């Protein structure tokens, strides 16, 4: 049954929930959709362009995808994710998308209330997560169709809402609005609690088991059987502490227990740092929004000294475009070679992403002194890294040959990506990654999971999906929601089966 309408955070005694999802971005939204009983089936008329996969689907066409063998279906498929279920589900939703085809999804969705798994989704703001904090005018990397969630096509929702543009790409503001409306339109809003901040997620029994065992002889005889049962139940579950920000600005503390916890926090929380001397100086920023604010207030207009932009990703490119359109001189420093095939610009079609290819063209032409006059307010420093920032507004750069150069700047923007902030876990969750005791990062050290359940390999009943497991594209996070839903449903069935079997002995002395 669905959770009650009242706020489940305020229960006394604390609630024990089957599932608590931390993070209300697209990962948390998609998982809530499936946990609410929405089931994908192969459409009766569907014909998948992959003949081998189509043959497998035909074997169990009338059985929902979560009830099928995901490992069998995913075998042999390839895609832009290292997680096989993510590739499988994307192949079902967007057949042959990476080959430029626009085949329709082979799935249809049915709401089956009997498959509802009680859960809540906790987020700092409205549903949509970090998308509400992104710059609203910049086009997203992915096509609008690839940003959509199951059951509601982005184009259908956006009909009549969007400005008249030729591009199929959406702005972050449009995507954020889509996610917020999705939760309402799909009837899953009751599962979401906004303005919640998690401060601790832990298993108390790990710290208390030994002490409880040693002091058991000192427990008073009057302790009730119910108290012992409650203690046993609480000890085996996750204990979650946090607070909710109320309308008047005050904070309401809460704590509750969860049988399973799902990490869906994304990777937008903590900007990556260079970890060099002087990085905390006031003129050094790690946020493009701070730069845009400075531009908007005219603090950089007419500045003689250029802005230093560090990084070779799309956020750095956005900052360069912003500076260029406002006639602000730029020094652009990045570690990679211009012809490095891993540069994101080399992976984007020119027709869909002309503005980013313009930045890449600027990066390339600056290597040639003969072409440097094409962009007089832009200077490129490939294969350079920052040695230090000085109090006198100077930055020391060094190239791969060891040659150092000090440049005078008006502001520094360090835009080299971001890391998830898992401060609420023991040791910030470092034990969960592929590389033990190193910070969790989306590319270098994602959370290590079972590829077909998305359960942590280090912590039972702790799941993760989305960027935390390396799926940075929204297209692929949906596979994580499918795998987790299937896993939780199978465990729920096993639990019911044990209860039924155990019930036959009730009352027998």
UniProtKB/TrEMBL annotation:
Gene Ontology BP, a term: negative regulation of cell growth
Domain of life: Eukaryota
Gene Ontology terms for molecular function: growth factor activity
Signal peptide, first to last residue: none
InterPro entries in UniProt: FAD/NAD-bd_sf, OSGIN1/2
Protein name: Oxidative stress induced growth inhibitor family member 2
Species in which this protein is naturally found: Eleutherodactylus coqui (Puerto Rican coqui)
The organism's taxonomic lineage, starting at the top: Eukaryota, Metazoa, Chordata, Craniata, Vertebrata
